[in-house]
Design goal:
The complex is a heterodimer of chains A (about 375) and B (about 325). Chain A has about 375 residues and is an alpha/beta fold. Chain A folds into 2 domains: about 150 residues, 3-Layer(aba) Sandwich (Rossmann fold); about 130 residues, Response regulator (Rossmann fold, 3-Layer(aba) Sandwich), CATH 3.40.50. Helices cover about 45% and strands about 15% of the residues of chain A. The longest helix of chain A is centred in the first third of the chain and has 21 residues. The N terminus of chain A is likely disordered. By secondary structure, chain B is mainly alpha-helical. Chain B has a single domain, classed as ABC transporter involved in vitamin B12 uptake, BtuC, CATH 1.10.3470. Chain B contains 14 helices and 2 strands; from the N terminus they run αααααααββααααααα. In chain B, strand 1 and strand 2 form a beta hairpin. The longest helix of chain B is centred in the C-terminal third of the chain and has 27 residues. Classes of the chains: A alpha/beta (about 375), B mainly alpha (about 325). The interface between A and B is large, with 57 and 64 residues.
Chain lengths: ~375, ~325
């Protein structure tokens, strides 16, 4: 009794998949009739013929109707992330100026491949353009190449497809990362009065951007201008608050003469300033680095943190909108050395591999922090 | 396995349905049909044969792992280390191929062997130490991914040959994507073993009552060892399939796949305490999840809301048959 019923239900599943064979959207019943009479294996073969016609249909639809409103979708790394909410705010600002349809979709977790189903859903919806902040430079490439092959314009925002640049037409990077190391040393030097012991609280030992920035800081320190600054330690908090706090605490104990901590990570910087404030040494030890205004606002207001840096993520969404609308209209053709007008932010240039730098580092302090909400 | 109760009294059609031994499967199937039609209403892009045949590929690893997971849960156990096993096997494969320069076939065989051992390790701990599988596999859940991360850190290993990459872009008879074909073939195989062999009966016996099974001569430890080893092997296979799909091996792939697989099993009517469940139910529930996510995804429904719907669906499909079964007695 068991098998017959399971087979029946199994046939039912196949019947539903038979509905999928309804290429002609108006008559799903007709095609399902057909598949109820065919055995599962034959179902596979009947569908072969229809694939060819479906393929032709898709190719013909690539040319877009110019009178239609442009549809742009942004796929951030994950949802509920204030940083990407700021990027989205940038898109929405540009939306008010350029009049396009805009939507945001994203996975709940920022793992390497979680964005793939979302990309495919957008391809299926035949949007005009996709902006994505990829979680991995390689896992999403095939899906993005598929989007490009179907006439959808693709750019990356915030993170690039390093080594897989054929998956996008252009890339918007928040700032010139080779300047991070130098600007961080400039900041700490200013805060500690140009001399004393300093330490770095980083994320993980193998995070590429962190290591690149730390290298930049060490290079900068070789400049005789900073000869009185001594880098005494580099510790890693793994971008976990608890671990970062423990490491910061250890720094204070190990180096009683410490004058400054640089934490070029949005997690570590909060842990560091909290530990320093709690130990009552906020007037002796300066904490700076890269961080988010929302997390650091209260420390800036109490004076425990004087200055820190980042960039304005909203600029990337704003520039991305102008770029994508231009790509869809055919008015912007990315080429190294070329440029385009990004609304009120004026001209932006295509650099190496069509990379675009959104802007200079932005330093936050008491005077400007309340203008930023991420 | 299950017997049809004698119709001693008059029953409404609903009660009749719920008295049916496959009531949970039927509920899941009805939900699948509803989800399908809601999908067609939500988006004009939903009813596209090529697309619909292709979407299960995005979640295929969860579907494939749900098959051995059905066995494990029917046997009254659980394995939450499967996704970590996937990541570790993918990592081992990547290292063997890319760093140790092994030929493709050799790297695949050795990686699969490793996944089998990872599964057997779970099985040994469960069978010999008598620890609950939840505790054991919670440990290996962290351990296996930890080892994978220790091996390659935040790096991606790529550069696999074209014949290995992109198995989801290959088709049977030019139309049916290979992942769907492989999943259905495996489902039939696992279904035959669970519902048609002595081994399958041992699995049900274990999940119904382990002491009784022991006294009836079921080789408890051996069955458990086989179950966890096969699950480990299938997880490893999925790790390689995912690596092929993404053309890249990383330590952080497949996060949450264990939960998707367990959701498919439970949604398909398998009793989380063991003793009851079918491969058919798991297969239907897997398609239900795919259709629900795709339908909502094409309508750009936010992921938080999608998770709420999947959660409610799960609760509904578990609670409804149970409630009505109780009413019946």
């Amino acid at each position: 009794m068991f098998t017959r019923k399971s087979l029946l239900a199994f046939a039912g599943v196949l019947l539903v998949s038979g509905l999928f064979t309804g290429c002609d959207k108006k008559t799903p019943e007709a095609s399902s009739d057909k598949s109820t009479t065919t055995a599962p294996k034959e179902g596979g073969t009947t569908s072969t013929k229809e694939t060819a016609t479906a393929g032709v249909g898709k190719a013909a639809e690539v040319a877009r109707d110019a009178s239609k409103k442009i549809k742009i979708v942004y796929i951030p790394k994950n949802t509920g992330n204030v940083y990407f909410d700021s990027v989205i705010a940038g898109f929405k600002k540009a939306q008010g100026e350029l009049n396009f349809d805009f939507d945001v979709v994203a996975p709940a977790q920022a793992d390497a491949a979680a964005q793939i189903p979302f990309i495919k859903q957008q391809i299926q919806q035949k949007v005009d353009a996709i902006a994505i902040s990829p979680n991995s430079p390689d896992a999403v490439k095939p899906a993005l190449v598929e989007a490009l092959s179907k006439g959808i314009h693709v750019i990356t925002i915030d993170a690039d497809l390093t080594g897989n640049e054929e998956g996008r037409e252009a890339s918007i990077t928040p700032m010139d990362f080779s300047l991070v190391g130098k600007s961080q040393i400039d900041l700490i030097s200013e805060l500690v009065g140009g001399k004393g012991e300093i330490a770095i609280l980083s994320a993980t030992t193998d995070a590429p951007n962190q290591n690149f920035w730390i290298k930049g800081m060490k290079e900068t320190l070789k400049d005789p201008k900073y000869k009185d600054l001594q880098l005494v330690d580099t510790v890693y908090g793994n971008d976990q608050d608890q671990k970062s706090a423990t490491e910061a605490q250890a720094l204070l104990l190990k180096h009683p003469n410490l004058k400054g901590i640089i934490a070029p990570t949005s997690v570590g910087i909060v842990s560091a300033v909290r530990v320093v404030e709690a130990s009552g040494k906020a007037d002796k030890i300066a904490v700076t680095g890269l961080g988010m205004p929302n997390n650091l606002r209260k420390y800036v207001q109490t004076g425990s943190m004087k200055k820190f840096a980042l960039w304005n993520p909203a600029d990337m969404g704003y520039i991305g909108s102008y770029l994508l609308v231009g790509l869809v209209n055919g008015k912007i053709k990315p080429s190294v050395g070329g440029s385009f007008e990004a609304g009120s932010l004026k001209e932006r240039k295509f650099g190496e591999k069509n990379g675009i730098i959104a802007g200079p580092p932005l330093v936050f302090d008491k005077s400007n922090i309340d203008q930023y909400h991420f | 396995m299950t017997t049809t109760p004698t119709p001693s009294q008059k029953r409404s059609p609903l009660q009749g349905l719920l008295a049916h031994p496959l009531s949970s499967e039927i509920v899941a199937f009805l939900l699948l049909i509803i989800a399908f039609f809601v999908g067609t209403r939500l988006s004009p892009h939903f009813l596209d044969r090529d697309y619909l045949l292709g979407v299960p590929s995005e979640y295929i690893e969860a579907g494939i792992i749900a098959l051995p997971m059905t066995f494990i849960i029917v046997a009254g156990q659980i394995d939450i280390s499967v996704a970590s096993n996937m990541a570790l096997t993918a990592t081992i494969f990547g290292l063997l191929y890319d760093r140790a320069n092994l030929p493709l076939g050799g790297a695949i065989v050795l990686a699969l062997l490793a996944s089998l051992l990872l599964g057997a390790f779970n099985g040994l701990l469960v069978a010999k130490s008598r620890l609950p599988a939840l505790a054991v596999t919670l440990g290996t859940f962290a351990l296996y991914r930890g080892i994978a991360q220790a091996f390659i850190g935040d790096k991606s290993i790529s550069g696999f040959p074209e014949k290995f990459n992109g198995w989801d872009a290959r088709f049977l008879a030019g139309a049916v994507p290979m992942p769907l074909v492989v999943f259905l073939v495996l489902a039939v195989l696992f279904g035959l073993v669970l519902h048609r062999t002595y081994f399958g009966r041992w699995v049900y016996a274990l999940g119904t009552s382990e002491p009784t099974a022991q006294y009836s001569g079921v080789p408890v430890a051996k069955t458990q060892l086989i179950l966890f080893s096969v699950t480990g092997f299938m997880a490893g296979l999925c790790g390689l399939l995912m690596t092929s799909r993404y053309s890249v091996a990383r330590f952080d792939i497949a996060q949450g796949v264990e939960l998707d697989a367990i959701t498919a099993v439970v949604l398909g009517g398998t009793n989380i305490f063991g003793g009851r469940g079918t491969i058919l139910g798991t297969v239907i529930a897997f398609f239900l999840m795919v259709v629900v996510r795709t339908g909502m995804g094409l309508h750009n429904i936010k992921i938080e809301k999608q998770l709420i719907v999947v959660g409610l669906l799960l609760l509904f499909s578990i609670i409804l048959p149970n409630l009505l079964r109780k009413q019946k007695t």
